[in-house]
Amino acid sequence: MSVIIDALLTGRGLVWFLAKPYLVSSIRRNNMSNPDELLIYARKKFFGVIRPMQERDEIVPLMERVGKQKPKVFVEIGTANGGTLFLLSKMLPQDAFIVSLDLPQGEFGGGYPSWRREVYEAFAKDTQAISLIRADSHQVTSLEQLRSALDGRQIDFLFIDGDHTYEGVKKDYEMYAPLVAKGGMVAMHDISENVIDTRCQVHRFWAEIKKKEKKTEQFIAKDSPKGIGIIYK
Ligand SMILES: C[S@@+](CC[C@H](N)C(=O)[O-])C[C@H]1O[C@@H](n2cnc3c(N)ncnc32)[C@H](O)[C@@H]1O
Predict the structure, then answer these.
(1) Rounded to an integer, what distance in angstroms lies between the CA atom of residue 85 and that of residue 123?
(2) What sign has the CA pseudo-torsion 86, 12, 143, 167?
(3) CATH number, domain at 124?
(4) How far is Cα 119 from Cα 49, in angstroms, rounded to an integer?
(5) What's the pTM?
(6) 139-195 pLDDT, tens digit each
(7) Which of 66, 79, 119, 160, when mutated, tests ligand 1's pocket best, judged by the most ligand atoms within 8 Å of its CB?
(8) pLDDT tens for each residue of 15-30
(9) Ligand 1 pocket by Cβ (under 6 Å)
(10) Of all residues in the chain, what percent carry a pLDDT higher than 90?
(11) CA of 83 to the centre of ligand 1 (A)
(12) Residue 224: its pLDDT value, please?
């Protein structure tokens, strides 16, 4: 039964259309700040319609680092259900600017349909701003769109969780990491080898970049290793 409800909610049906105002209102009213409570909310609320594709032991430590670092400009490449956009946005300061870059439909999670825009826009508090760019991160025009949204600001925290091929994640890093401010952070998901989906090759790029960068950190859950790596700029 819950599978059917879930399918209706995550599809584009009438049920979702009717439920959306309640979800938007619940998200707007959510003033939790504890990472574990936020994770439970994102996984369970409205049958997990904004659930993240992350393990607790990787995303919670990242949320804690973000909470300490207080980045004012956060850019996420790869949003899908909105799970990490929600969780990481909740750790930002009151005046933060949030940008999501994702395909309308895409590999490695599928992008998101347009009815979700309103839900994702509700992730920003009234004192924050959010911009949702629906485009291919690898296109120069997308980089230009981002630059224009940033309006001269640098990125304080970049989260890369888009194209998981070796070439894809490398390109995202090479295109967007230069926009990160000194003292800022770049994090990426799936830094462990994925033996089930061999298209995922982020671990190869992570192994290379870890050697080159001065300060890095990684969180890998024991039972389901996907892993998040952070580079401190
Ligand atoms: C694994 S999902 C993101 C999951 C999300 N960060 C979470 O944990 O809640 C990957 C997303 O990257 C997007 N993606 C893949 N290639 C992309 C590209 N070239 N440009 C923009 N987005 C891309 C997909 O559309 C998909 O929504």
Answers:
(1) 8
(2) positive
(3) 3.40.50.150
(4) 10
(5) 0.93
(6) 999 999 999 999 999 999 999 999 999 999 999 999 999 999 999 999 999 999 988
(7) 79
(8) 666 788 999 999 999 9
(9) 52-54, 77-81, 83-84, 101-103, 106-111, 136-138, 161-163
(10) 79
(11) 11
(12) 80
In ligand 1, the atom with minimum distance to the C-alpha of 82 is 9
Side by side, the strands of the sheet bearing 180-189 are 129-134, 97-102, 73-77, 155-160, 180-189, 228-232, 215-219
The parent domain of residue 196 ranges over: 2-232
Average pLDDT, the chain: 91
Both tokens of 62, joined, read 């990242």
Candidate from 39, 56, 103 with most ligand 1 atoms within 8 A of CB, to mutate? 103
Look up tokens 């009717």; give the residue: 18
| Count of the separate structural domains present in the chain | 1
